[in-house]
Every structure is written in structure tokens, then in C-alpha cells.
Amino acid sequence: MSESAPPDGAAVERQLEGLERAVGSLLEELASLRERALGAEARHRRLEETLQRAKVDGAGPEALEQRLRELGDENSRLKAVIEEARERAGRIRGRLLVIEDETAD
Questions:
Q1: What residue segments make up the domains of the chain, in order of their start?
Q2: How far is CA 36 from CA 5, 43, 45, 50, in A?
Q3: Which of 4, 10, 21, 49 is the most exposed place for a label (fewest CB within 10 A)?
């Protein structure tokens, strides 16, 4: 086809349809990427809020591992305190039973 010849209407129409399909596909992909980006931003905000509530400075893996170790240590300490309190409560209960028996006589 020479540049002076008029364009073939059918060929131009096919090219425009192809271009419209390509633009439509790109728009769909853009919408999908926007949706994914919004979801990722929302997850990021939730994670940041969680880290702030957990009082983790810096969101790096090292900081998170350190905080987990601290929480694990605190958990172990609290379990020991609870176990000691249970033992004391058991001893106090035993004494109360003895006192109750002695006063019942």
C-alpha cells in the first residue's frame, strides 16, 4: 500500500478494534493492580498498627525476633509466678481445712 493510496477502511477498522481490545485489557489489568495495591496498603497499615501496639521499634525481622524472645521470656516468668501462686493457694487451702476441722470438734 503506498502512502498516497486511501487507507483500506476494513483494515483500519480491524486495527482500531485490536487497539480497543488492547486498551481494554490494559484497563482491566490496571484495575486489578489497583485493587491489589489497595489490599496490600491495608495489610501494611494493619501490620504497622500491630507492631505499634506490640511496642516493636523498627519493623525489621531482627526487631521482631527480639520482641518474640522477650515475650517468650515474659511468658515463662508469668507461668512460674502462676504456678507458685497455685502452690501457695493449695497450702492456704490445706491450712484452712485443718483449721476448719479443728474448730468443728
A1: 8-53, 60-105
A2: 48, 11, 14, 21
A3: 4
